[in-house]
UniProtKB/TrEMBL annotation:
Gene, per the UniProt record: LOC116037422
Major localization listed first in the record, in broad terms: cytoplasm
PANTHER family: PROTEASE FAMILY C15 PYROGLUTAMYL-PEPTIDASE I-RELATED, PYROGLUTAMYL-PEPTIDASE I
Keywords: Cytoplasm, Hydrolase, Protease, Thiol protease
InterPro entries the UniProt entry points to: Peptidase_C15, Peptidase_C15-like, Peptidase_C15-like_sf
Assembly description: Monomer.
Location within or outside the cell: Cytoplasm
Protein's recorded name: Pyroglutamyl-peptidase 1
Amino acid sequence: MANKKKVIVTGFEPFGEHAVNSSWVAVQELERLGLGEAVDLHVCEVPVEYQAVQGLLPSLWKEHQPQLVVHVGVSGLATTVTLEQCGHNKGYKRLDNCSFCPASQCCMDSGPDCIHSVLDMETVCKRVNESGLRVALSVSKDAGRYLCDYTYYTSLYLGQGHSAFIHVPPLGKPYSSQDLGRALQAAIQEMLKLLELDPKHNEHCNHKHHHQHDYV
């Protein structure tokens, strides 16, 4: 058990027009499929609330010490499964499910404007698209300045870039929950392969906490 890779995957609760949030549905489908014998998969549903995210994420990273944390969110604009390359610190003006937004409109007061994942999402995207999955993936550098982006930035900051964010379309537009689950599975398996190939990506997150500000 000790040798298993620990991966956390989160989805979001319903909000706004998304009475069913396809991100959490897709993550539950992924949990059924699993990520293979070598991976210990832990899933959780994240509230669409800035303060809840600030409370939840540090405990996820600290308690589980995962190799990778993948956050999944819904985008009403998405027509593909979209891999986000980076998270942004500023521009959070939109009110959350508690009608709250940060007074500073930013995530971390002293944090860099943008933090990139250590994973090359273009590579992940290309490999999954070439695998014959029949679900289209694309890459984005703008996670939308709402709870998705806020969560991603916080996780990238806490995890030294060992995080990923995947936007999924609403259910049936055009993909089923099964399609989305398979796409998450394929993408995360490719991410884990990339981490294995590059030793500097695979250093455990505890080693470098005092260097957090170096990750830009």
